[in-house]
Design brief:
Helix 1 crosses helix 10 and helix 1 packs antiparallel against helix 11. The radius of gyration is 18 Å and the shape is globular. It has 12 helices and no strands. The chain has a single domain, classed as ABC transporter involved in vitamin B12 uptake, BtuC (Orthogonal Bundle). It has 265 residues and is mainly alpha-helical.
Amino acid sequence: MIEALQFDFIQHALLAGILVSFAAGIIGSLIVVNRMVFLAGGIAHTSYGGIGLALFLGLPIFFGASLFAVGAALLIAALTLKKRHRIDTFIGLIWAVGMAVGVIFVDLTPGYHVDLMSYLFGSILAVSTQDLYFMAGLLAVILTIVTLKYRDILAVSYDSEYAALRGVNVPLFYTLILILSALTVVISIKVVGLILVIAMLTIPVYIAEKLSHSLFTMMFLSGAIATLFTLIGLWFSYTYNLTSGASIIIISAISLGLFLILYKK
């Protein structure tokens, strides 16, 4: 694959893989410790409504997907802030409605020529310079917020009642976690697609959780592991001419299987 590095699209794919992997590692850790894994799939499928709307109105695809994803996150935050045990019910409803809206708008779009399969299973080799700017900007925002507000996020994630007693604005941080999760899901769609995004946000985190003793270590290690899986998956897909997103997830799943066999703690 070394000779392929001369091509811009391969360079963009590698850079996108690294940026998205670290964003997914950090946010995936928060999703897991907050017990909101279903959230990733819900927002990903809801964002399909934004993809359909963007096609219908002639807007940038990821602008529409981001709007729908953030809107879904805000709605979920409002509905579940005081009823977090019911979050799966609301996510399931929003998931179905978002997909239905997307399908309707796609049906209403005359003569579109967009490969929607790329949004279902990823198109990392088609990452543009603008996509890279968005990914880098989002990762910078995530790193800044997590660095400056780490203790508050930690408190809200593990014990929201204790956090409230400490004077932490629990609704704000809960909503912020959901919004960052939504945006991370959207950029992850570019790499692995909305069908496979849950695996990217959870497999590296599961492995990192077993090897970590703090949330901070878990976040960093998740990003590093996700990056390794992404790079190996890209090499595998390039070598055998396979779909990149699916290859990344297959490599992740095989690695998880080996980890479960070898890790005995």
